[in-house]
Amino acid sequence: MKKLVKLLLSLTVLFFLVSQTAMAQSYTMYGERMEKNYPTMAGEKLMNGIVNAATGWVELPKTIILTSQRDGAPYGLTVGLLTGLIHTVGRTVLGALDAATFFIPTTPVVSPPYIWQDFNKETTYG
């Protein structure tokens, strides 16, 4: 079991280094973005999945706050709480799914892709 964990950790670090090198090469000298290649897209999906699986719980207070600001505190503490629970499960499960299927690069299903991007926008899927 320890050998398997070490192997997976080593492969993750290796893949991360390769994806970072590929990402660094995907920019031109003047900062213009070139077309992404497979290692870059797969690395971004893996990172997005890991981060969303780890930070999905932040959806709960975020949704309560946004709903309370928009519709009032009682509504935010009831409907916002339930909606936040759904968003928490959604971001966490989709993040784990993205991390598990990183080798098939796709665009993020969750919008915004990371919880801290556009924090005042409610999470959407699709």
Automatic annotation (TrEMBL):
<dbReference type="InterPro" id="IPR023824">
    <property type="entry name" value="CHP04073_exosortase-affil"/>
</dbReference>
<feature type="signal peptide">
    <location>
        <begin position="1"/>
        <end position="24"/>
    </location>
</feature>
<protein>
    <submittedName>
        <fullName>Putative exosortase-associated protein, TIGR04073 family</fullName>
    </submittedName>
</protein>
<keyword id="KW-0732">Signal</keyword>
